[in-house]
Write a structure and sequence with these properties.
alpha+beta, Alpha-Beta Plaits, two-stranded antiparallel ribbon
């Protein structure tokens, strides 16, 4: 078995960084620059953050900014190197990480 670090990043559709789509920028960083293992983007149907503002996919809401979760894993040193770069794009309290075992 191998120890890996899993990281999860919480953002919303439509979030921007320097005028670019935040999800696409993070995905590009993880895929093209850092080449981390196992990147997946999940799109939520509803959610709310610390401010309690509900974001949901329903017909009554015209501006939907659904929650997105970007999850990836790699060797601990790779994740530790990339997280500060992601932290420059978003608030650090929207990033969580933990150790796991890979390769049962």
């Amino acid at each position: 078995m191998k120890t890996v670090t899993i990281a999860r990043i919480y953002i919303k559709e439509g979030d921007k960084v320097q005028g670019h789509n935040l999800m696409q920028e993070i995905f590009r960083l993880l895929h093209s620059e850092q080449k981390v293992h196992g990147v997946t983007v999940f799109r939520g149907v509803a959610g709310f953050g610390s401010k309690g503002e509900v974001h949901a996919d329903d017909l009554l809401r015209l501006n939907v900014h659904l929650p997105l979760v970007i999850e990836f894993y790699d060797d601990p040193e790779v994740v530790e190197a990339v997280l500060p770069r992601i932290g420059q794009m978003i608030s650090g309290d929207h990033i969580v990480s933990w150790q796991a075992q890979c390769g049962f």
